[in-house]
Amino acid sequence: MRHNKKFNHLGRTASHRASLLANMATSLIMHKRITTTLAKAKALKKYVEPLITRSKSDTTTSRRVVFRYLQDKYAVKELFGEVAARVADRPGGYTRIIKLGNRQGDAAPMAFIELVDFDENMAKTAKAEKKTRRSRRSTKKADAATETAAEAPAKAEATEAPAAETPAEQAPKAE
């Protein structure tokens, strides 16, 4: 019976699964976002989040523990440097999984997994856009009135500017 054995084996042996997750975690730390299947993304989330939590305390012991999992000194340096600085005040939830649909070849569900604090598109400052009114009638009438009012002087200037300049006016005046 497999009671309380909750992690996904991903159809691999233990050594293959460990190598796969270590390589994917290294890629995630170095590139901040990777595209993979949904099952691998969920397995990677459980694998990498404790490592990120461990990186918040920069001690020799925690570096050795993380290196034992990742086996890449450049990824460990990046994790304890830039990543740990960005997630220092976050209490958890360092990764985000966004589903992308099915892969064309075998219809496997695809997703990308990214580090939350490194996504500029979904940053909190990007949400500060102009506030719009929600009433439809007044917005359509107001927009139509401002468009026609703004277009009329622009059209008048466009027609006047070429007509005002004749070849005689373009020649320099001698005084």
Please tell me about this protein's structure:
This protein is mostly helical and 175 residues long. Helix content is 54%, strand content 11%. It has helices spanning 14-31, 38-55, 60-70, 73-86, 136-164, 167-170, and strands spanning 33-37, 95-102, 109-115. Strand 2 (95-102) and strand 3 (109-115) form a beta hairpin. Helix 1 (14-31) crosses helix 2 (38-55) and helix 3 crosses helix 4. The model has no long low-confidence stretch (mean pLDDT 84).
Number of helical stretches of at least 4 residues: 6
Classify the beta-strand content into a percent band: 5-15%
Arithmetic mean of pLDDT: 84
Radius of gyration: 29 Å
The N- and C-terminal alpha carbons lie at a distance of 106 Å
The counted number of beta strands is 3
Shape: elongated
Largest sheet: 3 strands, antiparallel
Q: How would you spell out the order of helices and strands?
A: HEHHHEEHH
Structural class: mainly alpha
Unreliable stretches (pLDDT < 50, length at least 5) are none
Strand line-up of the largest beta sheet? 1-3-2
Q: In percent, how helical is the residue content?
A: 40-55%
Record the SSE blueprint.
Layout: H1 14-31, E1 33-37, H2 38-55, H3 60-70, H4 73-86, E2 95-102, E3 109-115, H5 136-164, H6 167-170
Antiparallel strand pairs: 1-3, 2-3
Main attributes of the structure:
175 residues; mainly alpha; 6 helices; 54% helix
Concise overview:
With 175 residues, the chain is mostly helical. It has helices at 14-31, 38-55, 60-70, 73-86, 136-164, 167-170; strands spanning 33-37, 95-102, 109-115. The protein is 54% helix and 11% strand.
